[in-house]
Structures are given as C-alpha cells and as structure tokens.
Known about the structure:
The complex is a heterodimer of chains A (563) and B (212). Chain A is mainly alpha-helical. In chain A, 71% of the residues lie in helices and 0% in strands. Among the domains of chain A are: 17-47, no CATH class; 103-202, Orthogonal Bundle (Serum Albumin, Chain A, Domain 1); 207-372, Up-down Bundle (Glutathione S-transferase Yfyf (Class Pi), Chain A, domain 2), CATH 1.20.1050.80. In chain A, helix 12 crosses helix 14 (312-322). Chain A is extended and about 100 Å long. Chain B has 212 residues and is an alpha/beta fold. Chain B has six helices and eight strands; from the N terminus they run E-H-E-E-H-E-H-E-H-E-H-H-E-E. Chain B has a six-stranded mixed beta sheet, sandwiched between helices. A two-stranded antiparallel sheet of chain B has the order 7-8. The longest helix of chain B is centred in the middle third of the chain and has 17 residues, at 105-121. Chains A and B meet through helix 8, helix 9, helix 12, helix 13 and helix 15 of A and helix 1, strand 7 and strand 8 of B. The site of magnesium ion has 4 residues of chain B, from helix 1.
Amino acid sequence: xxxxxxxxxxxxxxxxxxxxxxxxxxxxxxxxxxxxxxxxxxxxxxxxxxxxxxxxxxxxxxxxxxxxxxxxxxxxxxxxxxxxxxxxxxxxxxxxxxxxxxxxxxxxxxxxxxxxxxxxxxxxxxxxxxxxxxxxxxxxxxxxxxxxxxxxxxxxxxxxxxxxxxxxxxxxxxxxxxxxxxxxxxxxxxxxxxxxxxxxxxxxxxxxxxxxxxxxxxxxxxxxxxxxxxxxxxxxxxxxxxxxxxxxxxxxxxxxxxxxxxxxxxxxxxxxxxxxxxxxxxxxxxxxxxxxxxxxxxxxxxxxxxxxxxxxxxxxxxxxxxxxxxxxxxxxxxxxxxxxxxxxxxxxxxxxxxxxxxxxxxxxxxxxxxxxxxxxxxxxxxxxxxxxxxxxxxxxxxxxxxxxxxxxxxxxxxxxxxxxxxxxxxxxxxxxxxxxxxxxxxxxxxxxxxxxxxxxxxxxxxxxxxxxxxxxxxxxxxxxxxxxxxxxxxxxxxxxxxxxxxxxxxxxxxxxxxxxxxxxxxxxxxxxxxxxxxxxxxxxxxxxxxxxxxxxxxxxxxxxxxx
Amino acid sequence: xxxxxxxxxxxxxxxxxxxxxxxxxxxxxxxxxxxxxxxxxxxxxxxxxxxxxxxxxxxxxxxxxxxxxxxxxxxxxxxxxxxxxxxxxxxxxxxxxxxxxxxxxxxxxxxxxxxxxxxxxxxxxxxxxxxxxxxxxxxxxxxxxxxxxxxxxxxxxxxxxxxxxxxxxxxxxxxxxxxxxxxxxxxxxxxxxxxxxxxxxxxxxxxxxxxx
Lengths: 563, 212
Ligand SMILES: Nc1nc2c(ncn2[C@@H]2O[C@H](COP(=O)(O)OP(=O)(O)O)[C@@H](O)[C@H]2O)c(=O)[nH]1
Ligand SMILES: [Mg+2]
Ligand SMILES: [Zn+2]
C-alpha cells in the first residue's frame, strides 16, 4: 500500500503563515524564522541598521544597477558589483554573520554531502582545497549580497560560479586525469554544497514569489472540481495499482518542497514523472505502448492539480534560477521540469475553452454553483485521506497496545513485589514454625495449634503436602482478580506471571534441601530475616523449604490480601 | 550549440567527437510525430539507446564520419489546448522537425504557422526540418510535393516526405539535420557551463568538450 515518506505530510495552513503578529497574509518560512520574506527582510534591515548603518547605506545606493543592457556592460557592472562586495566585506562581519547563521540542520546536511562525495574529492590532492575555496568565496559573496541584489543577478552569479568550477576543472593541468563523468560529479558537489548552504538566502526570496505561490495555490483550490475527464486523462480509476502510482506521483511532487539542493528538487520531479509514465503504461503489467507527450502532459496537470504543492512557484523559480542551467535545458530531468512548468502555466491559463466546455458551465464550476463532479475529482484525494486515516488508526491501536504492555509490566512488577512481601510474611511464619519445630521434638501439639490460630480455613485444604501445583492456581486467581482490563494482553501476562510463580515453586522445591540446612536455622536465630529475604528474592527465588501446613497459608493469605 | 559529449561507450571504444542536440517535434495531433520518433529511435542503433519508459523524451545517436551526433528528442503535446505552451518546449532547442500529414491540408497550414512561430521566437539559427508524413498513403494525398517543396525552399527549411509506417526517409531526415547542425569547435564557452544530465538519478552524466 501507499507509504507516506518522511516529510511528505502536509502541514496546516495556519502553521505556514507568516509569524508577524498583526496577521500578515503571506507564507512564513522556517528559513526566515517563520516570517514571510518581507517581514523577515524588514527585521533584518532593522537589525543591520542597528549593527552597521554605514554599510547598508553603501549597498542601498548601488542596489539596483541595470545589468541587462548588453554583454559588455553587463560584465562590467557585474565586475564592479563584485568589487563592491569585496570592499564592503570585512572579516569580522563575515565570521560574525556565519556564526549567527549557523543552523545545525543545514550543518548536518552539509556534512552528509561531504561524506557522500568523500571518495570523489580525494583525488587529486589539491581538488578538495581548490573546490572548498571557490565554494567558500562564492557563498560568502552571496551571503553578503542576498539582501540587496536583484534575484536575476544572484542567479547569474550562481551560473557564473558553476562555469568557473567547470573552467577550473577543464583548464587546470592537475585535473587532466579526471574524466568527464568525474567532472560532472564534482560540479554536482559544488552545486549541492553551496546551494544547501545558501538555501535560506536564495529560496523564495522575493515578495513576488510569495504572491505567486499564494495565487497559484488559490487557483488550484478553485479548480478542485477539474477531473481526469476534463483533461482527457487516461487514468484507470478501477485499477488499484494505477491509483497507487498516482498517489506516489503526488507525494513526490509534494516532496519537492522539502528537498533543498536544486538537483534534489529536480530528482523529485523526475520520480514524479516516472510514476506518471507508469500510470500511462497501465501499471507494472501494462500492455500499452510507450506514452507520448500527448498522454503525459494531461496526467501531469492532473497530478499538479490534485497535489496543490506548497510554494510551488517558489520551488520552480528556485530551480530555474539556481540549478545548473544546462541541466534544465537538456536531459530527461530538463524535459520533465519543462513539462512541470508547462503544466503550471496551463493551470494558470485554464478557462472554459481550454477544458472544452461552455463558458457558463465553467463559471458555475468556478463560483461553486456546480459541484456535481467534485466527488469525482476529490475521490482520489479522499482515498488518500482514507488510507491515511487507516494508518493513523493503526498507529493509535499500536499506541494503545503499547500502553497496555507498559501497564502490564507495572502490574507484573507490583505482583512480584507482592509476592516478595508474601514470602516475607511466610517467612516470618515459617520462622515461628521453625522455632516451634526446634522445640517441638517434645511438644507436637503446640505446632498444630499455632497454625490453626493463624488460619481457620486450613481445615478446608487438603491436609497433605504443599507442592508447587497448589501455589500455581492460587497465583492465577490472584492475577486475574487484580486485572480490570481483560484482553489478550492480560491473558498473556497472566500466563507469564503464573509461569513465574511456577518457576518459583519449582525453585522452592529444588532448593528445599539445600537451604534447609544449618545455615538457615542460624539466620532465624539471628532474627535478621528481613535482609535475608531480600537477598533471597534477588537471588532468584531461592526460597527455603516450606512445611506443608504453612504452604497452605500461601493460598489463603494471598487471597485475603486481595480482598 | 553543440556542447556536450558522452564520455564512454558501453563497448569501451574510445569515442570520437560527440555532440548533443536538443530537437523538438512540432505539428498537429495525429500527424505522426510520435510514430516518427519511435521509428527513428527504436528502429536502429539499439546499442547506444538509453532505456526509456515513455516516448515523450528519447535519445538517439547518429554517426557521421568521426562525429557522433546525439539527439535529445522532445515530444510536445499536440492538442490544440496546449499550443500556447510550445515556446517552453522549444526554448534552447537547436533543431526542430515540423510534421504534417500529406493527406490532410489543414495540418500543412498548421505546420506553416509553426514554422513562422519558430522563426520568430526560437533560438536564432535553429535548424528546422519540414516532414510530410504518411507517405505510404500517397494515393490519398492532398498536399502536393511541389507545394511543400517550394514553401520549404522559400523559407530556408529542409524538407522530406516520410513514412513512419514504412520507415521511408525517417533516418534520412534525422541524418540530414545532423549534417546541417553546426559542429563547431568553439562552442564550449558559448555554452555557458551547460552540460547535460541524462538522468536525474545520476546514472550517466556527461560533460562538455565534445568540441574541444
Ligand atoms: N499510414 C500511416 N499512418 C501513420 C504514419 N505515421 C503515423 N501514423 C498513424 O497516425 C496516427 C497518429 O500517430 P501519432 O504518432 O500518435 O501522431 P502524433 O499525435 O503526431 O504523435 C497513428 O494511428 C499512427 O499509426 C505513417 O507514416 N503512415
Ligand atoms: Mg504524439
Ligand atoms: Zn509577513
């Protein structure tokens, strides 16, 4: 059945909203301490103003140069821009900043990336340090600039950085040994590492991005009535396997938001699309031929509509801007990503004509007067919800059972201590008996009288030996009478308990002769029975012999204890 | 922009120059775009073909003398309702095949519109080929060869009549495109760090410098 991957559960809307007190309507982002970018920037600005007002002044005055005139001026301005960064950054500033920005989660992710690429970067020796230096410089520059440079420039700088790495690998003679694939992977590493590090500065950084996110989210919610038929999708809703593939595609798409590096987000898209091809081929044992774009795009649109991923546009923009451009222009991943962009673009454009229905009908659907098909379109999601609830129920059941186990364990513990107490009691009786017995070589009658005094019910019991078999049922009744919740677990534990008692009894009879030696008499005479008993119980039920009559008392005393 | 290369072939042969191109398929629904590309990709050159689960994105390599030309073929959704999305597909494409059905005059008119759009909006210098498909249905022809030939000549297009069914001219048209594409020596820097990733799962990645 469908498995919810970690991190793919969706969060309530309220939790996603900006944290600002007077109800800002934008989405917040953990990267911005739960604020939206605008509020976060305001706060940051304020902080910066307080910290170093002069620097902000410099940056502000140069904040928006026009970089898009022609190649030459573009390069020039970029260069001057870079110089500007160099002049404004002082070492203190950076180290202070990086300390403040330290995020254990990101640090852990970076560590993972380092481990993943460890062997790749080991040869040649200079590679790691060269790469690290480039990455560090790039990251520092981006961190310095993220608040006041336009996002297009940041994107350009990033692409430039990728190009620089590639140039370094291609032109430096020490890297001649590396083959193309290695170089690719090294580039991958640089991209992954720097993007994870810079994620909170680069993802969803403009107000426009957020507006678009909200807009598309609202739009998709409005279009919740659109079903597979409207889109001419070929989805066999009666096939469980197909339905599962649709769910998987939806989950992969939802997962895109939790991936950090651009290539990881891209990988989510690729996995989503592969599931869609699975759908089109009719599941694992599909008989249909290879699906073409005509079949593929409608299903992708359907999946996007049903998934309604959070921060969809921000994610698309982030990948477009900061993923190595070549990856998006070509290759399977590029193709799928382009299709996703197309699907989103189509959703933004959807109108009556595009769905081949008349305008009135479309309007009625959009303003909610016509809802007949909602069930149809929601079916798939309902099923998902249904499964989720099933799994939640399963979890609840497991939790309940776990509680029962804990409860039983506590009970068992209590019973064991009771058992011990009883033995202490027995022991004191026993001691008395022994004391009597010691003297009773002369007076037999005295002993029987004393037992009768303690236990009037003794007459009901078999007059003969107290053996383990007699203790066992006594323990059983004990357990079941204390347990109020009777279910399978209780039965189980009851059995365990009685097994314990059985063991104990067996132990008793085995140890009988061993313990009943002279040392035993000795301890009784020393009157240190309490310590002795504790020791006995710890030693694992090495219980001294019990004469038959006192043995009978175990049953009755335990019964009266409970009552 | 011929910029990427595949490093090693499965059989371990040292590769010559390998250039990669993005090619989009355009044309009305049912003219045979998918059939054409399937015929081209599945019909031959099995040795280098990557496994695909759909016919929407396919790759195929052609050998021209010492150069291996790898086509990355992007199928586009042909339905009328998706026409406005086409620019996203042909962005960055180095070649396009505009397909029409020789038995259907409307599809030819539609093809002309595609050509116009490509010439106006696509990458400058994009190689455009016009393919009159379903040549095997010659008896039902409604678009005359002369007409298309003249149109293609006037607009600087390559032109061939093809049949996905009989595979007539299928490889030929791709080969002709491959020949016409610039296999420039110095496209490396122009590529702006472009590289390709064959699959996002990291199976088989390649790097530029075919043209190095
Ligand atoms: N007779 C004939 N039929 C073809 C040819 N090419 C495609 N078809 C048929 O035309 C229909 C549409 O083809 P398809 O490749 O799906 O067109 P697309 O929508 O442009 O991708 C299918 O039924 C094909 O069998 C051809 O060369 N000759
Ligand atoms: Mg097709
Ligand atoms: Zn806010």
